[in-house]
Amino acid sequence: MEDSVEYKLIRSSRKTIGIEVSPDGVIVRAPYRVPVYEIDEFILSKRAWIRKNIEKDNIQKLSREEIDELADRALKVIPERVKYYAPLVGVTYGRITIRNQRSRWGSCSAKGNLNFNCLLMLAPEGVVDAVVVHELCHRLEMNHSKRFYENVFRVFPEYRKYDLWLKKFGSRLMRRMTG
Ligand SMILES: [Zn+2]
Question: Residue 143 C-alpha to ligand 1 middle, in angstroms?
Answer without folding.
Answer: 7
